[in-house]
């Protein structure tokens, strides 16, 4: 040893095995390859490629795909970044189109945070959390307290906090819908805790079934798993499905009976085409009101984000969760955990405030806000349906009417020859299909295996965010050629 | 069980025990109490308090204490938030004081990120990472590649990523300086890994001693610890001490010989009053050049942040780390880990770009930039020395001349009666002293026990960020009264 060790300290076999085990396909190999194509095209070296643009349909990232931000939000944000502009109100209003409510909001938020360059309280600025509480009250018709609101670095960070808090040992199990957004399984890998999958019902528009849940729960208990929580993504990702009231109630009753925490990921609550969004908080309060004393002990954590909806401010990393029914001593440990990373990004906290407290009817910026909001919604719906129609023209591809979120999750049926070829290449069949799709069309989606799916079924998830509908024709053409090759 | 469980699922005994074990005093009980005082005063209910302002001297948060942001940074940021303003260049330049380089920089950054509301690549926008690489090259005189740069949600998130990657099992040990910024010990608690403390040399202005390091290492090895990394905070937090070249070299040689990764937390690299900052990267390359072949295998991770220096943009959560000498397969696992949380806040990434690539001499915004930079530096130095002088007037308080960072870390010697009283109240003696300080003066600091200290020694850490020097007199008066009470 005296001449020194000349090999590296770290290698695949000795770093954290839980990170090794974790999988996150949304930004996996396929996405990396699509970025390589994009870089190639940007350098003008893409003449050999059969496409001239890369379409990132793998990730819910609206503003990377030309969705414009909400004007009010960004006008306010510009004043938060440069409060010196507030000394030139006339210029702002007369020459730059800033209305008086923009200026008022910036002043209010600067009182809340002092500076977007200062750390806030770890839980987030109290004034902003108060706005969130008021939003929740308006939405649900039940009280909410700013003390139970935790602003977070996107909802992803909130999920990370909750799972870190709840997962106490390797036997801890968290129920996760299949298919799910793989933040859950990846984080549980890293925590060396157990995923308890419950299957969503593909035959019933990806509905949540109590049977499925209780089957999964019983199986896990029999295996010695200490099941501590059930995650519900509502509206669903990747499915878009919104749970009807009776299904939410069933989940809550299940949680009360078995003693599990409910984690309600509600980031797509304003992305609903079919059905309606009912918050778990409202359903819980309704249930508690209708059967007093019986369900008062339920612990619920509900998450929201500025990344989705019509807001689409992914890069700002704004989000929050509300803790309902948690013991104060447990909330204190949550507080301690989040305080180690100091606080969520402050400008992102401000975007949260504006998301939950947008211009109201009668206010100067309302008209434009409403127009932008409705235009974005209409555009999302139009593109969702264009994709849906395209899928109808693709042999063996089955897709429900777009229900919500930012995704479609069609089922694909591949010929045996294709499945064989996939195996030869060491890939899951839907992965193989998606790689071929990327190579032929420049469109990057995510294979269903990345989200979990019932054995023997194949899917892929695509967003409907990319502008226009031309690119859907690329998919139709590719699929024809693929089927011709492998039939 | 059929009538349902009526107690809570989660309690202190069944949540993640590693979070229970973690301690982070910077935002602990004392800080919480100071916030309660602040709220009381804000509501006008503080007539019974012996102070009329709360001074948050517990946390390096300059802009919460009236430090103004750098104008150039915030002008650019306002354009990034509202790119529509770029359609009114004349108004910006003629009426709002935006110079042409502000506009040019905003355009460059918008090309890099497309929108601050869009997720970037998980590692951060390539163009911004390129600016960071160029900064490192200019600073050190050695090449750097954007591929080895990882933008992060503050440097804290980078530390979290690195420790998560390296800590593979409970026996993994990470060497940590005592005293240290408690992010390290708190994160290692959460990871259920071992802290291997090495003591900084208080008698020699908190210098880093190889003896101390090797003693700590040998002890850990004997205890069966798998020591994988050594953390060095340079300049130090809480100590402010800058490592001279020969000490950095000694650490690198130690790391090479024993086979440990070096984690260099360099967030205070521009906060230096005594000595000079030498980056670990430069020292490593110098060493590799002077003794070719012998030290090529060293793995080094260097961290920086927009929260400190003269930039002070804590709330923006901007930071980065550079990985030097890591195996590609390990870097890929780091990439996967960070991709689960998608990307660092994009406006924060842009602040990083401006920190490493500020206005240059000859450019229109340079004069103001330089003036602001120098004024902030002079203010920090003045307040540091005012505190230092105040400590000289406090019996039993010993403090070195301010060396750097944003903190002073004086030693305190308390009379036996005070130590008894602390024991009666169930507190560490320095904690007890700090609580009394808060109650008497409204000044919130952090007890030395929060950072680690040699057995039998007592300290506290205070920032020198609060404006003015009046509040230092509160401390002198309090200390007099404290000593009178307990002598």
TrEMBL record, chains A, B:
The molecular function terms of the Gene Ontology recorded here are:
pyridoxal phosphate binding; transaminase activity
Please give the biological process terms from Gene Ontology that the record holds.
Answer: L-alanine catabolic process
Q: Which cofactor does it need?
A: pyridoxal 5'-phosphate
Looking up InterPro entries in the UniProt record yields: ALAT1/2-like (IPR045088), Aminotransferase_I/II_large (IPR004839), PyrdxlP-dep_Trfase (IPR015424), PyrdxlP-dep_Trfase_major (IPR015421), PyrdxlP-dep_Trfase_small (IPR015422)
- Where in this chain does the record put each Aminotransferase class I/classII large domain? 100-471
- Record keywords: Aminotransferase, Pyridoxal phosphate, Transferase
Q: Does the keyword Transferase apply?
A: yes
Tell me the Pfam families matching this sequence: Aminotran_1_2
How does this polypeptide assemble, per the annotation?
A: Homodimer.
Instruction: Please give the family membership noted in the entry.
Output: Belongs to the class-I pyridoxal-phosphate-dependent aminotransferase family. Alanine aminotransferase subfamily.
Q: What is this protein called?
A: Glutamate pyruvate transaminase
Question: Which species does this protein come from?
Answer: Ampelomyces quisqualis
């Amino acid at each position: 040893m005296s001449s020194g060790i000349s090999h590296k300290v770290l290698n695949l076999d000795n770093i954290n095995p839980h990170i090794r085990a974790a999988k996150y396909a949304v930004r996996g190999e396929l996405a990396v390859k699509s970025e390589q194509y994009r870089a190639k095209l940007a350098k003008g070296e893409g003449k050999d490629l059969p496409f001239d643009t890369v379409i990132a349909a793998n990730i819910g990232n609206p503003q990377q795909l030309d969705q414009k931000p909400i004007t009010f939000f960004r006008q306010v944000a510009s004043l938060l970044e440069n409060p010196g502009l507030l000394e030139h109100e006339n210029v702002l209003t007369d020459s730059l189109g800033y209305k008086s409510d923009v200026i008022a909001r910036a002043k209010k938020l600067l009182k809340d945070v002092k500076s977007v360059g200062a750390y806030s309280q770890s839980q987030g600025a109290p004034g902003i959390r108060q706005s969130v509480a008021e939003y929740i009250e308006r939405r649900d018709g039940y009280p909410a307290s700013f003390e139970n609101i935790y602003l977070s670095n996107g909802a992803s960070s909130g999920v990370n906090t909750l799972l870190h808090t709840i997962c106490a040992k390797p036997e801890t199990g968290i129920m996760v819908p299949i298919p799910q957004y793989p933040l859950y399984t990846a984080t549980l890998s890293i925590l060396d805790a157990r995923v308890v999958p419950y299957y969503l019902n593909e035959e019933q528009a990806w509905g949540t079934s109590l049977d499925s849940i209780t089957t999964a729960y019983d199986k896990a208990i029999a295996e010695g798993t200490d099941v501590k929580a059930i995650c519900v993504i509502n509206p669903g990702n990747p499915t878009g499905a919104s749970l009807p009231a009776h299904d939410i109630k069933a989940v809550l009753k299940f949680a009360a009976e078995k003693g599990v925490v409910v984690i309600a990921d509600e980031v797509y609550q304003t992305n609903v085409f079919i059905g309606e969004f009912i918050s778990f908080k409202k359903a819980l309060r309704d249930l508690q009101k209708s059967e007093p004393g019986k369900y008062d002990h339920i612990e619920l954590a509900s998450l929201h984000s500025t990344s989705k909806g019509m807001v689409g401010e992914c890069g700002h990393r704004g989000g929050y969760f509300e803790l309902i029914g948690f013991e104060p001593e447990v909330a204190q440990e949550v507080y301690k955990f989040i305080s180690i990373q100091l606080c969520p990004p402050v400008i992102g906290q401000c975007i949260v405030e504006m998301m939950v407290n947008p211009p109201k009817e009668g206010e100067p910026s309302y008209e434009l806000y409403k127009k932008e909001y409705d235009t974005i919604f209409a555009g999302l719906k139009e593109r969702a349906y264009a994709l849906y129609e395209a899928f109808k023209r693709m042999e063996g591809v089955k897709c429900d009417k777009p229900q919500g979120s930012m995704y479609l999750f069609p089922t694909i049926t591949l010929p045996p020859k294709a499945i064989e070829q996939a195996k030869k290449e060491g890939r899951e069949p839907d992965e193989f299909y998606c790689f071929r799709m990327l190579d032929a069309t420049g469109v990057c989606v995510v294979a269903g295996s990345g989200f979990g799916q019932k054995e023997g079924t194949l899917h892929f998830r695509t967003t409907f965010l990319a502008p226009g509908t031309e690119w859907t024709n690329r998919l139709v053409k590719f699929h024809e050629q693929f089927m011709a090759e492998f039939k």
